[in-house]
Amino acid sequence: MTRSSLPVAAVTAAAAALLLAACGGGSTSSDKASSSDSPPGSASATATTASPTQAAGPTAPTFDLPSDIKVNFTGFTSSDPTNKAVLLDATYAATSVVETEALGKLAETPNLKRFFTGDHGAALADQMISYARTGKVATGTIRYYGPKVTVNKAAGSVNVFFCEDQSKAYDKDAKTGKVTVTEPSLRSYNSWTYVMSKASSGEWQVIDYSRVHGVKKCQAD
Q1: What is the pLDDT of residue 17?
Q2: What is the value of pTM for the model shown?
Q3: For residues 86 and 196, is the Cβ–Cβ distance under 8 A?
Q4: Which residue of 17, 93, 105, 219 lies most exposed, with the fewest beta carbons within 10 A?
Q5: Residue 198's domain spans which residues?
């Protein structure tokens, strides 16, 4: 894997145990690490997808992403108006996590607070702060793809499953700028499931979530 893991907390919601983790992956003993001043290929990265803010209206969030980190989304659209709105807000939520890790803030960012709510959102913010206290920030490219939307009418919520590719994402020392580069492994490929609910503002917020490391389906895709 290419990123260092944060502590994983087990949370129970609706009789299901959900793993809470920040965007960082986890190194394994088989990963080979080295240090450099910048991630390989960062200067010539061309696979950057347009920011989600470019596809929405004036109330869309803006993100303060450093120039050395890229967030790509593939397939996060739908002909169904509701699903389209859910998927767009899911991209905002995912980007808010990357933004928080890339900035190394010791406080919850406005975008993270906006798209992750409740106790689960607070737990995620705490983990983001714990990551920042290690002196590391995220760099490189993170890709999200293969989204699937499932409506839970009884609960009034929507589940959004998608894959995450961190094979080109790395930890960087916030002070020195040194990047720890590791070789990709199965743990570079993860899956997320967001449980999203529509807020009074009309936005879809993440009220619960789970993350699974080392997903072969995501690696194959």
Answers
A1: 28
A2: 0.79
A3: yes
A4: 17
A5: 9-26+52-220
